[in-house]
Design a protein that fits this description.
Elements: H1 2-17, E1 38-41, H2 45-56, E2 61-69, E3 77-81, H3 83-86, E4 93-97, H4 123-129, E5 133-145, E6 149-158, E7 172-177, E8 180-181, E9 206-208, E10 222-224, E11 227-232, E12 239-248, E13 255-260, E14 265-266, H5 302-324
Antiparallel strand pairs: 1-3, 2-5, 3-4, 4-13, 5-12, 6-10, 6-11, 6-13, 6-14, 7-8, 7-12, 9-10
Helix pairs in contact: 1-5
């Protein structure tokens, strides 16, 4: 009888851990309410991509051969403004998403908002994330810089935070400069993803927006401080950059990368980073990097927990069979 009860317990444990992942439908296209970011999606792949690249590019760089990959009908890319009032730390620029740019607008109404677009992922992003990617959104172009280094200022946000940290749902983005990713966790070689900047690791670069009253007026349950990507280039020659974002693990629950207007420009790689390590653009709210919530969001058990439960069930089965023999 004890053995049978043990097997039942193991089965219940496994089924409780393997809960179905759920998500909420996307927000409808709408004008933003006061206090949050305003977004305007591009309406065609050619002119829209040109406008995205031109908005991003600053002095000392000329661009050409602009290409866009993503969904126009799904509002996957566009422009944003009013970021400082919303608490983003960047006033205006371009936005790339793994879902819909409209979903990024506040207020925060969901911890799992999703616009699933049924698009393929990107092989380069899949390699970085360590998992298959989906719904890739890519802006890439050739450029000629006047100097030997360039920089970009950005913020990465997602509704995958906090509940899917350290799971296979590792949404990812990258800036591939001449094939090498320069969007890195500061002072490391790690790409910026859900699993590399969050409330548990590299917390000085993270802003928690996951519980009410929400300190920031955007949808993302978490986002990075303003970060700067730096990279070496060949001056006076053709160079390439590929800006890409995608869902990791499955095609659900949106992430966004916000890139400051005019911030893709020539720079001095030896100069001090203008951003302090706690981020800039603080709107006066308390620093959210301590994350000492009274009622923290529970984390899913993830793959390791499921494997442990499976091992327990195998052990119970072995003991049961051994007793019968």
């Amino acid at each position: 009888m004890k053995t049978i009860l043990s097997l039942i317990f193991a089965f219940v444990l496994i089924t409780s851990m393997a809960q179905e992942r759920k998500w909420d439908p996307p927000k409808p296209p709408a004008t933003a309410k006061n206090g949050t970011i305003t977004v305007i999606p591009i309406n065609d792949a050619v002119t829209g991509a040109q406008q995205l690249a031109e908005t991003l590019t600053g002095p000392g760089i000329s661009i050409s051969n602009i290409e866009f990959t993503g969904s126009i009908e799904g509002y996957q890319s566009g422009f944003f403004s009013n970021g400082m009032e919303a608490g983003l730390g960047i006033e205006e620029g371009i936005i790339l998403s793994s879902g819909s740019v409209y979903n990024a607008q506040g207020p925060n109404t969901s911890n799992q908002i999703s616009a699933s677009l049924d698009l393929p992922g990107d092989a380069d992003l899949s390699e970085l994330a360590g998992f298959q990617t989906y719904d890739a959104n890519i802006l890439e172009f050739t450029f000629i810089p006047e100097s030997d280094s360039v920089s970009i200022r950005f913020v990465f946000g997602s509704d995958e935070y906090l509940q899917y940290v350290n799971t296979q749902y590792n949404d990812v983005f990258a800036f591939f400069l001449n094939g090498e990713n320069i969007a890195l966790v500061p002072a490391t070689s790690q790409p910026v993803t859900i699993n590399t900047i969050n409330h548990l690791i590299n917390t000085q670069f993270f802003r928690n927006n996951s519980s009410s009253p929400y300190p920031f007026n955007i949808e993302a349950d978490g986002f990075t401080t303003v970060l700067t990507a730096l990279g070496a280039v060949a001056p006076g020659q053709d160079n390439t950059i590929k800006l890409a974002i995608a869902d990791g693990g499955d095609q659900h629950i949106d992430s966004w990368v916000f890139l400051e207007a005019g911030s893709f420009t020539i720079s001095n790689p030896n100069q001090d980073d203008p951003d302090d390590e706690t981020g800039d653009g603080d709107d006066g709210s308390d620093d959210e990097t301590d994350n000492d919530d009274d009622d923290p969001t529970p984390l899913p058990i993830g793959n390791s927990g499921i494997l442990l439960a499976f091992a327990m069930m195998v052990l119970f089965t072995f003991l049961f069979m051994k007793k019968r023999i």
